[in-house]
Hints:
Rossmann fold, 2 domains, 36% helix, globular
Amino acid sequence: MRTIIGLDELRAARLSFNGTVGLVPTMGYLHEGHLSLIRRAKAECDNVVVTIFVNPTQFAPTEDLSKYPRDLERDLSLIEPLGVDLVWNPTPEIMYPTGYQTWVEVEAMTRPLEGSMRPTHFKGVTTVVAKLFNTVQPHKAYFGQKDAQQAAVIRQMTRDLNFPIEIIVCPTVREADGLAMSSRNKYLEGKDRAAAPVLFRALSAAKTVYEGGERDAETLRRKMKEVLDGEPRAQTQYVSCADYDTLEELDVIKGKTLLSMAVLLGKTRLIDNFVLG
Ligand code: PAF
């Protein structure tokens, strides 16, 4: 497995690949969720590239970029046994050199949900992912269902900009108590960690109501809120029952639907979702 930093090295390595290329973009501090994306890429592609880059442009000035967990050595030791061909770990100066001024922005579907709480976030995500797509030129790119809106926005960007790349969205990997794996779970301590499975319980409760035949979206939103309100440490930011592709809030559930939520536990912000239908 080669680990490289520079753009020229990346381009040379890309040219040396034969067959299909799978890309797994990450911000490092890897957990089982990331490893499941890498395993899937390895099973489906001849060559696998993992990128590790804590992208500054997807953090707002109020979000502490410098505190985002980082441990490259540990990440590399987790990736090594999986048979990854190349790890690209560019610097912020390589990705955003002095004078940088080009952005990729998806419009309507970045405004609700996460976009309503983090208005500049998706512009940073789509810009960096477009840059990764342009440099690595993968055939397939792998993202987690955990960041459901991110996956939907990247699917839209890929369609809109005619990237010849298949976007593969892999299931959320969970702890035994249902908490969705996330690099940010590291911040959860004591009583907040104990309270964190409330998101999974709220989603499961709404799913049970749906499976009982309920198709009124507001009833499902109310159900999720009711369960979250039962946990005194949880501060709900939003609950949503939206169309899976457009992310528009629904009145009546018809097709594929995304149940999602964002919740504060102490200072840690958690998101989670289920797909119905
Ligand atoms: O999901 C993430 O880790 C990041 O948003 C991504 C896709 C690697 C872009 O920085």
